[in-house]
Each structure stands twice: as C-alpha cells, then as structure tokens.
C-alpha cells in the first residue's frame, strides 16, 4: 500500500489542483476538431497503473473540483429548490442504470464533439475523457443543479456573447470557473461567475469598493468578460489560446509560445503552459460536451426557483436589503442572491443605486419605497453603517462643530506657534489642525483660528 501511495504521490505532483479544474494526463499532438489527440508520454505512464491506483489517482484529481461544486448548494435559490426533493445525498448518488463513461467507446465521444458546430476546436483525448467522467459520473447531482442554473444564466451569457460576436460555447466558461456561483472567490482573489481578478475587473470598468463588487454582478461581469475575451482573440486569433489566456493571463501564454520556438497551437505549447492551465482547455471541452449531451447520460436539470422574470429598479439614496426584505416579506437570502454585488447588504450611494427584484415585487417596492426607507433607518443606516466625513468650506476647512464646546476665534500674533496656542486654551495641537484645516505646523501672523473650548 505504501508503494502505491508513493506512485500516486509522484503522479499527483504533476497535477495542480486549482479552481474547479484539474489535469490528469498530458497531450502532445494537435488534431482537427472532433478528432482524437494521441496520448502523451505522461498518459502512457498512467496506462501502467493498476485498477486500485487508477481509483486513487482519480480521487486526487476530482476532490477539489467536487469541493468547489459544493459551494453552489449554499445559494438560497438552490437550497430552496431542493427542499422538497429527495434527500440530496440520494439525488447525487451515481445511477447504476446509466452507462459508465469507461464503457463508452471513444468513437462516440469523438462523433458527438464533431456534431457541436463551433469555431472553437473541440479535440478529444484521454484528458478530455477523464474530465467528462468528472462531469457526467462523479458529480451527476451537481450537474443537474448546474443545468437548472444554466436555464437562468445562459440566456444572459448568450445575449452578451452575441452582442460582441463571440462563440456561444464560451458560455460554458463560468461552469469551470465558478460552478455558476456569482459569489465564488478563489484563493488568489478571483471573484464572481467569471472569476475576474481585481485589476482585470477595474480595467474593464467594474467597480470594486468596500461595499460593492461588480465582478459579482452577473450582467456587468459578463459584459466585462466578453470584452476581455474579444481583446484576447484580437491578440491570438485562436480560441483555444484565448481560453488558456483567460485562465493564466496572456503573459504566461506568450512565454509558452516563445519557449516552444514560436508555435501557436495550444497542444504544441501544452508542456510550456503553467500546470493549472494545462487542464483548463480539456475541462472546457468536457464541460461543453456534458452540457450538450447531459440527457444522453441520464442527467436532468434540477428545477431552480429563480424568479421567472426579474427586473431592476433605480433607488435614490442609501438602502439596506434587510429593510426591503422585511417590508416586502421577502427572504433576505433571495435578495442577496439577486443582488450579489452588494457585499454588506447595503446600497451605499447617496445618489443612485440599482436593485434587482422579482418582477412581481417591483410594483410593491415602488408603492412602498418611502416606508421601506423609513423602516428602522436609524438601525440599518446608522453612523456605524454609513458615516461620511464632515463637509468642508471653500478653503477646505471642516465645518465640524464639537458638542459641549463653544467657539472662540483667535488672531495669530507674532511669535505664536500651535503648541503654545493649544496649551493656552487647553486643547490639543491635532484638534487645532483639524478645526482649521492645517497641514503641518505653519501658521501666519494675522490668521484667524477657530478654537472650541470646553463650556
């Protein structure tokens, strides 16, 4: 057993488990779309494994992926939809009546991929087969949930991809990026359905503050992702390279191209890419297959109780989601899932905010907006929740007036310094600076200072 574990560990070191994707073997030669790609030396070594070793290696490859899929079950609309169904553990058990992936001939996978009419090359090899196994065998219950979520998210993705003239199959990327969880956050900080890093999101116009993260907004983040994918295609002119660059960044893809001697085919630069990216394109191909042929493998979409139609309303001034939920008698978690961009449940802008609601609640919100804003405003919009700096006058001096103090005006004389004046009036130098908008210690003869002394 110890020898087996050592062999598994050696193989596992060649696999970088990142996000929800994993690589289990390597490829070497490119092939036309729908054709198989010859197995690599690494895959040949894998062929020498015993059945027990194969099972153990498969566990290593899939565990992080399955852990990330578990995160989608924490979403309100997923849990709410499954409350009345059979126990979730039973729902996710492997159906013994469905043909196992290992029993399906490769030629069937190849022919099915060839029937997907896409400008993206959808090659087949041992790596892709292993990922297909993850999607349609190891995580059948999760796939049912994602198929249900796709009925809500895919129309959003498709409309925006069509607007930017991008391949429709790119709608599958959020499945391998976030398992369709808009609040997903990676260990390195990539956030949202499309797992955008902070700098990329800001570059494409997404707002990220302490209260709002538009990378978590399904609509805005999809627009940003489409623009990024379009720019990557202008750079490479090859969709598999675009998908790889989306995962690891164009800098790493460019390095791989240089190290390969200038080759520009994904499979030719495969070994020069970061290990976490080597499995990304195969995972994309497998996810595309799984979402297209789920019915053929007996996987049925779970009904997710997203509102059939949702709409946005403009809210002037600050508002807390708890105020809306209480007055409209809505589950707070549903509001959070419809508005995942608000990190602290607060619509923070004093001018204009956008709130997404089920369409049957929009009228009620408009009719009761004043009551909603008034409901426990002192609690939800208190100084602890929202606090602004004091307004400044034209000279930049604060208009702040301390309580229990009276204002005294003092004219600076020759020889005065802030410390001396502060001592005379029993105040602190820092207070004098704050009351008079002074930076440093310089004051001028004849300058009028405001001093708030104790009553």
The whole-number mean of residue pLDDT values reads: 79
CATH topology of the largest domain: Lysozyme
Instruction: Count the DSSP helices.
Output: 22
Give the tally of structural domains.
3
Give the CA-based shape.
elongated
Order of helices and strands: HHHHHHHHHHHHHHHEEHHEEHHHEHHE
- Work out the oligomeric state of the chains in this entry: single chain
Q: Report Rg.
A: 29 Å
Output the strand order for the largest sheet: 1-4
Strand content: 5-15%
What does this entry show, briefly?
With 455 residues, the protein is mainly alpha-helical. It has helices at 2-12, 41-46, 51-70, 76-82, 88-91, 106-114, 126-138, 140-163, 173-178, 198-203, 218-236, 239-248, 250-259, 275-278, 280-292, 321-328, 332-338, 359-367, 369-374, 377-380, 418-424, 429-436, and strands spanning 310-316, 319-320, 346-347, 352-358, 405-411, 448-454.
Question: Which SSEs are present, and which pair or pack?
Answer:
Elements: H1 2-12, H2 41-46, H3 51-70, H4 76-82, H5 88-91, H6 106-114, H7 126-138, H8 140-163, H9 173-178, H10 198-203, H11 218-236, H12 239-248, H13 250-259, H14 275-278, H15 280-292, E1 310-316, E2 319-320, H16 321-328, H17 332-338, E3 346-347, E4 352-358, H18 359-367, H19 369-374, H20 377-380, E5 405-411, H21 418-424, H22 429-436, E6 448-454
Antiparallel strand pairs: 1-4, 2-3, 5-6
